[in-house]
TrEMBL record:
Domain UDP-N-acetylglucosamine 2-epimerase as annotated: residue spans: 28-371
GO molecular function: UDP-N-acetylglucosamine 2-epimerase activity
Keyword Isomerase applies: yes
Top enzyme class: isomerase
NCBIfam families: NeuC_NnaA
InterPro entries (alphabetical): UDP-GlcNAc_Epase, UDP_GlcNAc_Epimerase_2_dom, WecB-like
Protein name: UDP-N-acetylglucosamine 2-epimerase
Gene3D superfamilies reported for this sequence: Glycogen Phosphorylase B
Amino acid sequence: MVLSMKKKRIAFLTGTRADYGILKPIMQAIKNSEKFELELIVTGMHLSQEFGNSINNIIKDGFEVQHQFEMDTRSDDNISMAKSVGKGIIGAATVLKETFPDAVIVLGDRTEALAMSISAAYMNIPIIHFSGGDRTGGIDESVRHAITKFAHIHFPATKESANRIIKMGENPKRVFIVGEPSLDKILNLKYMTKEEFSQKFNINLNKPLIVVIQHANTIESKDARNQIIKTLNVIKKLREQTIIIYPNSDSGGREIIKQIKLCSNLDFIQVYKNLSHEDYLNLLKYASVLIGNSSSGITEAPSFKLPVVNIGTRQQNRERGINVIDVDYSEKQILEGTNKALYDKDFQLKLNKCINPYGNGKTSEKVLEILTNFDFSKNILQKINTY
């Protein structure tokens, strides 16, 4: 008689549309696996009507949300962000006590991931961290590296990030370079035709299409209003078709939203609180330029050879492709960068050689193979610096 092995339950935490889009291919691979069971924990922006209730996108994609907990606060300041971490730790601990998975997966540098990592670590639940080792600066980098020190298995996207994790004293045998998970979807999605896209978004693809995603930088949150005003002033000068997507619910985010609302009645601007990840990828495929400071411009846009006008310091230290034009918070520089992206023939020719430094779209396969062969015994919880 052959006894079937009990499936390992892997819990995924998602708090924003961005981390969900990145983790979705891994979630699907775990869901389809015969050796693992997917458990989904939802928090943060997903539960906010103000930011579009993106939990509905998750459910529409066919995933069952087993657990959720509130974390966002109603205020838009740094004190509220600090409080949200405490709120998140309590919420995460309550959920983990109920479900107690074999491991929990978190991504990047979000407060939701930090709260979950703290709770899981104290409850002796192994932590699997994606996108560790990246350099971003400010509080985001501190949070990312803190999660790295809590985590037991590391899935960085690039060799440089892997080397940073190892330099932090993490065991090299637990560090696996797997690429950026969202590229799996990019390279395998069945995209809309030009006609379908034009009809759905009411866009004339014979003209330039600008996409704007600008988040508040936590350490510059008091400047968020002035920063977005400069970007929007450039959009008003250009008067090209523009789609603006709401920022994250970070400190300063609501100030950005106020300014976006003030120009939402202009006939060349469309505003979305959020989009499904599939719609968003179609947007990147057919856009002429992405303006703002989203990590998507760094990790996803190169796969589309899409020009990115990257504003300010939020992504200043990350590896990037030749599609990125870095500018300061300056109307003059933003305008010059956008004109270069739209009209500079030499730059556009160079884009044909753009290679995405974040992988080749086979991350899910690698992750599933690694986790299948990994020893999840109690020794996994033993963390000792290698230096």
